[in-house]
Amino acid sequence: MIIPLAGYLCCGAIHSMEDTLAADRLVRWGNFHACIFDRTGLTIRACSDSLAELAGQERAADLIGSYVIDLFSLNSLAAFEGLLREGDFSRTAQCRMAGAAKLDTRMAIALSTSPEAGDSGLLTMICIPVFDQTEVISQLDAKAETLRQRNAQLTEFSNLLLHDLRGLLHNLSGELELLLLGSQDDLNPRVLDHLARIEKSSESMTAVLKGVSRFLRPNIGDYPAELTDLNELVDSVLATPRLPLAEGTLLKRIEPLPTLTCQTQLIEEVFRNLVENSVKYHGELPLLVEVGALRQDPPTFFVKDNGVGIHQDDIGGVLEPLRRADRQQLNSEGTGMGLALVKSIVEQHGGRVWLESRLGRGTTVWFTLSERGTASNTPD
Predict the structure, then answer these.
(1) Can you tell me the distance from the alpha carbon of 92 to that of 80, in angstroms, rounded to the nearest whole number?
(2) Cα separation, 89 vs 8, whole angstroms
(3) Which CATH class is domain 5-132?
(4) 281: Cβ–Cβ under 8 A, 6 or more apart, which residues?
(5) Domain limits of the chain?
(6) What would the DSSP string read from start to end of 280-329?
(7) Residues of 184-220 as b/e, b for ≥16 C-beta within 10 angstroms?
């Protein structure tokens, strides 16, 4: 550690003993732990009150004439003497003070001389506290471990709860289906309509719970890292949509994508979720979804559509779990988990996600994939 003494020291050249008092007044400025000592005899000629207090003395005058080496604990003498011996005052040495009130405080010791001082042989020493962070780091590590354990417990609890809720909803859906199939002639149309709505709500809740479970489950360490041609991956996603496409819909890759090392299954899920989001909220115009990448480092990808877009007030929240931006309620099957899952997977790959959107003009989702191996652009 190199400390620019010019920013700390305010005492200039000392040409005579008469200058000592002036130097003392200057050293006191800023309340530094500092002193001026004779390089040959190692006796202190001027001292700040704060250094005297650190050394266990009431006044600076109590240290005048004493040896500067007496300020240091025995195991710190070698470091201090090394500074004197080498004469390299551009560096510092870490020492402990003998009799210091705070024994856990280390000091960065810096020495300085002024060219104007000639052969006076006087040196200025300044001591800058270097607080031991070992205990603080240990406490932070303990808290981090507690949080990790707590998070693991919450994740386990959440998974068990989701499993039980999905089981209950599955049973409820089964009972409703049997009731609807076997009671068409026994129930009036109004009751049948209510039962059908209950069944629809049950299916929607099952989809939400499935999305939440998927969000909690992905762990990047559970999937193998593979060198993946993203051109092939995206082409497969676009060629095999899991949702019905409206007439005139066009899904296309417009830019060559890189080949990179990633968790292929998870990255496929990212592209598929984004494309399916565009399909769900296509609006009235024939839907156009374009997938591409910018040639830059880190690789930056985009999925762009001309759909209904997102209200500006909703853009900041749509990447969070269970947040939907469907103000027109165009899609009753949306779970609010798709973009949150995308964000989770991308961040596990060292990247980030952001959106650009205008209501009625479409949405572009951008994301990067970095710190997961090397990437190289591969032409079609």
Answers:
(1) 9
(2) 14
(3) alpha beta
(4) 307, 308, 326, 330, 331, 363
(5) 5-132, 133-217, 223-380
(6) HT--SSPPEEEEEEESSSS-EEEEEE-SS---HHHHTTTTSTT----TT-
(7) eeeeeeeeeeebeeebeebeebbebbebbbbbbebeb
Do 268 and 233 form a contact (C-beta atoms < 8 A)?
yes
pLDDT tens column, 352-368: 999 998 888 889 999 99
Q: Domain 223-380 adopts which CATH fold?
A: Heat Shock Protein 90 (3.30.565)
Does the pLDDT value for residue 213 go beyond 70?
Answer: no
**pTM for this entry:** 0.49
Distance CA 35, CA 62 (A): 12
Higher pLDDT, 334 or 78: 78
Give per-residue pLDDT as tens, 259-279: 888 888 889 989 998 999 888
Would you state the pLDDT for residue 47?
86
> Which pair of tokens denotes residue 365?
């989702």
